[in-house]
Design a protein that fits this description.
single chain; about 150 residues; alpha+beta; 3-stranded mixed beta sheet; two-stranded antiparallel ribbon
């Protein structure tokens, strides 16, 4: 297994989680990808070794990994996606392309730059994500749009 896998398994142990076969397989999925992972992809991967595993078990494990800070959860209009956290001590936020799912870090925290909660509100945690379309995807969409218009006029 790769170093990402080892780091995930060690982090699970450090947080007091039992390192079950399911969790090892989930770590394998995340350590072999740099992008977002769908719960159904994880389920399909695990089901090869553990037939009959439920989606609930996969979601329960994903929620635990989010709680201990190993994995981040993102809410797209198509549903939840998960991504290996960028780093344990690297607090940042993201610009996310909804077409290709590339992420671009926002190198400052809006909370640190003046967004203040009400006086009687204690911030426990926060996320800040901006969803949009990257330049490359916008160009592809423009090319597709132009091609459709060209075919209509012929």
């Amino acid at each position: 297994m790769g170093s990402k896998w080892v780091e995930m398994v060690e982090a699970m142990e450090e947080h007091g989680l039992r390192v079950t076969t399911q969790r090892k397989l989930i770590a394998e999925v995340f350590s072999s990808t740099n992008g977002f992972v769908l719960p159904r992809q994880i389920h399909s991967f695990i089901a090869k070794d553990i037939p009959g595993i439920s989606y609930d078990t996969v979601y329960r494990n994903l929620r635990l990994l989010v709680e201990i800070g190993l994995v981040e959860q993102f809410d797209f209009k198509e549903g939840l996606r998960f991504k290996l956290r960028c780093g344990p001590n690297h607090h940042h936020h993201h610009f996310i392309c909804v077409e290709c799912y590339n992420t671009y870090p926002l190198d400052f925290c809006p909370i640190d730059k003046g967004i203040k909660p009400p006086e009687d509100f204690e911030v426990i945690s926060h996320k800040f994500e901006v969803y949009g379309i990257c330049a490359e995807c916008a160009e592809k969409n423009m090319d597709l749009s132009l091609n459709k218009e060209t075919h209509k006029t012929k």
